[in-house]
Amino acid sequence: MPLVILLAPQIDAFCRTRSSRRTVMPLQREETFTRGLIFPLGRHAVCWRITLIQIGSRAKRIGLVGLVGVAVAAATAVLAFWARAPDETASLEGRPPLALDAELTGVQNAAELTEAEGVHQEGRADDALDLFESILSGQPDSLEAAVGSAIARWPAGTTARLRTLALSNEESALVQFHLGLALFWEEREQAAINAWQRALEVEPNSPSALRAENLLFPDVPRGRPIFVPSTELDPSLRDRPLAEQLAALDAAAESSSSADSLIAHGVALQRAGRVVSAAERFEEAARLERGNAEARVAAALVRFEKGDPTPAFAALGPLTTAFPDDAVVRYHLALALIWIRDVAGAEAQLAQAAALDGDGFYEAQALRLLERIGEVSPGSGSDGALEGPS
Known about the structure:
With about 400 residues, the chain is mainly α. Helices cover about 55% and strands about 0% of the residues. It is built from 19 helices and 2 strands. It has a two-stranded antiparallel ribbon with strand order 1-2. It is globular.
């Protein structure tokens, strides 16, 4: 929700459906998009959403390049989300999950951290703890290893350790996100909400902040709508580590200073969960080439937030007048409309995009998405696996 996030394998740590458990009443309600939660935040809804947190090892190898079909896959999952039958009986079992994003952020010992996270995901908490402690013995300041160690110890001192880490790392969304998970497992829902809100506030430019947003808005589809350029990113980067992909695209953007290179880097940053940095690249591209519709649309769409999507729509709307014959505007306006459940509006925009871009990239994508809209029926969907951003 985006980020290269897939639906994780079912493991002991995750929520499971238990028909014998009572429905839990919502914790909090906010009726508008302008502040707080826009739907009732029930424990069952958060429980269900937590099953989608973990990044699987296959997902990590997808990388940040290769965008054809990504938007259709993501938007299809959103449509299926809206069509799903709500599960009001999900409950917690096992231990809190772990999502360190070491490969995305390129921290030291990323490979070892990813291995330890995978072991934890397999349900081998004691083995994972040994691996995290081994990393800490050689790199005692590794925040990711410290968080992993705390979660792997569950329930022995997990929350206390995470609180201590939060005190010494006040600007870390990673710590706040996992602290929220631990608190939620202890059935301290409001404290968990506070931690997730804190994650969004202190470090919005991080994958952990977006995961926290997913849990704060459990009745809204995962992730955010992602800008999709009409050209592929450099396919030669596909097999390189994610941090190297970002570094290469950054270097290309700095050396060429073209709108296309800035957009390419922005797209990769957005998929890596660094939405603030992505917005900066898109804005730079839009300033460089005011007549570039893709740059202007990217800069508008990246403003979408679940707490308040209105800035994105306020920026996208005028672009339909500024670029009346450009399908990229209509196509991405449709993606944003799908995220707020205006499927009829999205269909109208997709039809216009297809008409404007005969035999072009956005026509093909719009027609594919229109076809998928027709296939999704109430009760048939789920927030399923995406080979792309979330």
